[in-house]
Every structure is written in structure tokens, then in C-alpha cells.
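Every protein is a chain of amino acids, and every chain bends into a shape of its own. The protein below has been through that process, and both of its lines are reproduced in full.
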Amino acid sequence: MNYKRILIAVDDSSYSMKAARVGFEMARKLNAEVGILYAVNKMQEQANPDLGTTERQQHSLLLAEAEHAINQYIDLYDGIDKVYRFTPEGLPEEEIINLSKEWEADMIVMGTHGRSGLNRILTGSIAEYVIKHAEIPVLVTTPRMK
């Protein structure tokens, strides 16, 4: 397969840092375009009366966090001719699948927290969902990867 578009799914975790590094290195070696996706999770947009924030303010904060994270990844991994930025809003696992199709990505690169047991059952696994539903190869970096 010819990889010309690599979609890197990130958040603000150290696990995403590994995924970004691997994705950018692959793109550089393959002369591929990079898309960085940070999904703004709509489930986190609830008003917080304790902090005095409304849903609209929470949405703005989440969007700013996504943009800031994307900027950091791009700054760290300079050297790619074209980097596309995506901040879709919704459930991250669904947005990764949807965007991979819309942008016509050839591969998805993402990190995993490496949760197991009860913790994974309670929180779910975005990586597992993407692996099961993607129509293209998915490279998942783990906490144990160097």
C-alpha cells in the first residue's frame, strides 16, 4: 500500500506524544501528508457551576486546548511540508473514523493508555473502537514503546 496521507489522532496526554513522534517520522520517511486530529469531546462540555462556567465557556476552553495541543505537536515535529489540522466535535472514536474517511487517510496513528481489566471496561478504549471500525491500517503506540 502507498501511504500518502497519515492521520495522527492526539489528545493532551504523553501517550499522544509517542503517537505523534511515530506518525511524523513515518510521514517524513514516506513523504506523506499529515493530518492531526484532536477531537473535542462533547461529553465534556457540561456547565460547571462550582467553577462558574457555562457550556459555551467550557466549549471554548476545550477548543482552545485542542488548538494549543495541535500547535505543540506541529512545533515539535517540524519538517513536514503540509500538515492539516482537524478539531471535530463529538465522540473521539467516532470522529477519528469519520475523518479518516472524509480526508481519505491511508493510515491512522494513535496512542493508547494501555489500560486493562476493570479500568478498561469502565472507561472503554478509543483505540480498540478505531481498530475494529477503521477501513485502513491503524498503528497504535503503547506506553511501553520507546
Q: What stands out?
A: The longest helix spans residues 55-76. The beta strands are 5-9, 33-37, 40-41, 83-86, 89-90, 107-111, 138-141.
